[in-house]
């Protein structure tokens, strides 16, 4: 314990230097802006700043602090347009739209923004404390996850998906199947076969996640707004009378925030899992947990716990992804992979010896994560009213603004007009799916997990030349299979038990 205190003291000495504090503040602000703009995302934001940091001759620890602040700031910023406009700023914010946007439409935009800022802070704080106390231990745990364990983890996530199916499981399963089908589009990485590309070169790399999400959420939402406007239905949002959440709402969501932050952190430690998976799994589990206990839960219609769970999870995951990078030299996410590239410019190789060979860099980074989080919290909450004023923009100006923001994000991916047309087509399909009552969250989860699931299954089977026993050989895989069965069977058995006990004649 004394060693940790001594090391974190060294880290704060580095992080509190005037230059590093300034860099952390600038990075936090830029990251928030990057997170707000759909399509940019933390990977692009960090990648764009690397040449600038190198050209300014920043010391390696200062450059890493700048990039880390941008990364964490982007996770904060992604929630803003998700809540206000139903346009996810980045992939990890998709789940935030499910309850954040309904809250904003109910006149609780200020509450949703401030509460989600707190949840982001709590999730990131949990992740940073996790790095501080458990980094070497969790690095060994993450190494136990091979392709087979990752595949079973995805199975577990899909079992958790049953909570998102709602009252119409057939439509929910159809939605998940559409998502899985979308994830298979493009060139097969193993065989080189073109799958469902219809001889269109732009589909060779598959459908970009941002294009799918912008189409499903932003474009279909715009079509609904236009439909309501044309039919004379008001799309005005009630004015929020409160600036931020109250103590009762904080207590109401505290357990969900902590649970999801811890879950997101552990998923973030797994290389390649990412904040998108963390937020989806955390939301699904929180929905299952709360709906089993609380008959008044209204996930998908503006439940505060459905807002805080994905935000805490994606920030906990983003921070947790630093563990494999720092301790093993294995990037925990796409963004940390880019940051490893930045370290290579300084001839620094992350790995097991980094804590001993360059302690000021490692502990300075960890300490700066604490500082950047506090900055982001105090940067976001006072600006709640500024952000929420977007809801007061008249529809004749708001609709074109959403179109411009969404299309800029889509076009920035490949600078191709094809992506714009594809987003519109997906938006029209999403609009009709909404009209038919098909839930969209299973579709999103299918897109997020489908590719990961296929890749890991293929890798696992290639190890054993196609033998399936590898999928349940390790203790980790067995534990995940048991958890998957339990997460489906226990609620079903519990409902049957309650139904039987309520039948007339039963005590």
TrEMBL record:
Signal sequence extent: none
Sorted UniProt keywords: Membrane, Transmembrane, Transmembrane helix
Domain DUF112: 22-445
Lineage: superkingdom: Bacteria
Spans traversing the lipid bilayer: 19-40, 52-74, 117-138, 150-166, 172-191, 203-223, 262-284, 325-348, 360-381, 393-410, 440-457, 477-494
Presence of keyword Transmembrane helix: yes
Cited PANTHER family: TRICARBOXYLIC TRANSPORT PROTEIN
Protein name: Tripartite tricarboxylate transporter permease
